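Help needed: design a sequence for this.
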């Protein structure tokens, strides 16, 4: 009986081209003779190094290069079927077989990257009911940067399958480099890193959909540690300094200042505070008032009891003429608030430019300074999901949160007594009434 040929598909590093691409080869041994033919799929230099690093770990290779492994499996299956279909094997048929196989499985070069990108955003992102509006807005920003990059580099006709790691690196450098000619200011490391991360998700979906073989953003990273942000949270002394402002330039500045203080005392972010209404306040025993809502960003529940300074600020704006739909505070665009906050910060000589998110960071810092170390409590107050080993067995309760509120109230009172009574006593002691 005639012996069947044995074969192996492997990455041939020794045949790496000048452009850095390392090809895969099909090696066939038959009748004591060996023949090798190049296969029509490759790895870049960085990818080849990763392949070599994990060459003994098949599962890890499958995780990193799912389409390459699938291509190898398909080739192995088709070749085995090919040799099993005949009792005789001829080396001269090897090239013909490979040409037919790769022509059959060849990636389309007709799909342009810009068409894929805009179609992905329109039909995948915008129609995904599981994604929050904030997430969709982030993807819109990413798509905008990619489209501007394509125009800048004149890649309008670039096929999707040709968008490889070298172009991904070009895009990374484009994001963090200043372009005076086109008036493009470089993004900071955190913003650029977030965009690269979303690009990785976009191309991951293209990989799963067999539109590409390799995710070009797989190894693209931006070092955020070297560009660590300024400590964008206020100290308690700076919070009290803001509470003492009496003569701002106009009423809007005073309102924005008070809204920022409320966020410092509650950690409620911009979009969630805009959605809160007076009827969302929960009135309990011993004059305790709580808020319970799900964060718009993560759909995780926030539950906390309000400190006296937070309650006073709510009451201050209870019947304000700018409130139209029973909100807790007047509403302004995020950009508007940030602009006013920078004016306030400059007037007070604060260490960094304020944004609405600075208040949430400040709240997390303050509850730590207040020695609230109950993880269930402070995660509930922040609206973060508790993922402890015992998360399936225990839940936060009102007792934990009231204790946390008392600790925070005592912390604020202690410092306010040392610096004046501005945010505890605003001229009169307020007593909220439950909404009917």
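Sure. Designed sequence:
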């Amino acid at each position: 009986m005639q012996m069947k040929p044995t074969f192996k598909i492997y990455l041939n590093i020794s045949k790496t081209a000048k452009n850095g691409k390392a090809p895969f080869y099909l090696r066939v041994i038959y009748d004591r003779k060996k023949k090798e033919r190049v296969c029509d799929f490759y790895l870049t230099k960085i990818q080849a190094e990763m392949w070599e690093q994990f060459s003994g770990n098949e599962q890890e290779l499958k995780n990193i290069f799912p389409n390459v492994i699938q291509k190898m499996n398909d080739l192995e299956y088709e070749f085995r079927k090919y040799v099993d279909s005949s009792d005789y094997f001829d080396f001269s048929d090897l090239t013909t077989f490979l040409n037919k196989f790769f022509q059959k499985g060849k990636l389309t070069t007709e799909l342009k990257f810009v068409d894929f990108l805009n179609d992905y955003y329109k039909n995948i992102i915008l129609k995904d009911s599981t994604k929050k509006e904030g997430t969709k807005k982030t993807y819109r920003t990413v798509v905008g940067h990619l489209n501007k990059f394509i125009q800048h580099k004149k890649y309008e006709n670039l096929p999707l399958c040709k968008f490889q790691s070298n172009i991904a690196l070009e895009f990374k450098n484009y994001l963090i480099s200043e372009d005076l000619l086109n008036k493009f200011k470089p993004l900071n490391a955190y913003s650029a890193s977030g965009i690269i991360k979303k690009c990785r998700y976009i191309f991951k979906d293209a990989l799963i959909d067999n539109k590409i073989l390799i995710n070009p953003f797989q190894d693209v990273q931006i070092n955020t540690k070297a560009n660590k942000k300024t400590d964008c949270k206020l100290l308690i002394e700076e919070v009290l300094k803001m509470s003492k402002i009496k003569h701002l330039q106009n009423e809007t500045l005073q309102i924005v200042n008070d809204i920022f203080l409320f966020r410092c005392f509650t950690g409620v972010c911009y979009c969630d505070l805009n959605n809160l209404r007076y009827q969302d306040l929960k009135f309990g025993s011993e004059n305790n008032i709580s808020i319970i809502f799900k964060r718009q960003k993560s759909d995780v529940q926030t539950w906390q009891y309000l400190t006296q300074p937070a309650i006073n600020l709510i009451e201050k704006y209870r019947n304000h003429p700018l409130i139209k739909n029973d909100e807790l505070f007047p509403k302004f665009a995020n950009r508007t608030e940030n602009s006013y906050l920078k004016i306030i910060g400059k007037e007070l000589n604060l260490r960094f430019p304020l944004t609405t998110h600075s208040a949430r960071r400040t709240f997390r810092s303050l509850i730590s300074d207040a020695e609230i170390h109950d993880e269930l409590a402070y995660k509930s107050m922040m609206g973060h999901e508790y993922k402890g080993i015992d998360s399936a067995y225990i839940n936060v309760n009102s007792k934990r949160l009231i204790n946390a509120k008392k600790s925070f109230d005592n912390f604020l009172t202690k410092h306010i007594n040392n610096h004046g009574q501005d945010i505890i006593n605003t001229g009169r002691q307020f007593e909220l009434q439950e909404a009917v």
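Residues 423-431 have pLDDT under 50 and may be disordered.
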